[in-house]
Amino acid sequence: MADETNYLMPDAIIKILGDYKHIAVVGLSAKPRRPSRDVSAYMQEAGYDIIPINPLYAGQQILGQRVYATLADARAAGKQIEIVNVFRRPEQTPPFADEAASVGAKALWLQLGIANTETRRRAQAAGLIYIEDKCIKVEHARFFGGSAFV
After folding, report:
1. What residue stretches are annotated with the CoA-binding domain (predicted)?
2. CA-to-CA distance for 30 and 132, rounded, in angstroms?
3. Which of 21, 81, 120, 149 has minimal CB crowding within 10 Å?
C-alpha cells in the first residue's frame, strides 16, 4: 500500500510518467479551449495513449480517439488503462478510485485544483499510486523536458 504522503512525492510522479503510457482521461471535453482537452493533446503529442472517458460524448471521437462512457466500457473494448487522469469536481472523484482499481489501473491522478481525502483513502487502500492537485502536463514538462506552455 502507498505511503500516506506518497501522493506528494516527486518520485511517484516520475514513476507514473516514466513507466505508464496509457491514460484514461475522465471528463475529457470536446471543446477546444477546455483544460482537459489542452492537457490531453499535450500528453498525446508527448507519446501517451489517450483514452477519452465522458458519457456526454460516448461513441464520438475526441483527439482522434473513440470516447467511452465509463472506464469499464473502455476496458471491455480492450483498452489498456494505466493512469486514470480525472477532470471532475472533488466531490465526484471517490468512485473513480474504485473504478480505476477495478480496470487494473496503476495510478489515479486528480488534476490541478482537485483533491479529496476520501478519494485518496480509497486509492491508497486499492494500492494505486495517487497524485492530487497537480497538472499532469506541467509535471511532465517539469520532469521530462517538454514545454507546458504550447
Report:
1. 17-114
2. 23
3. 149
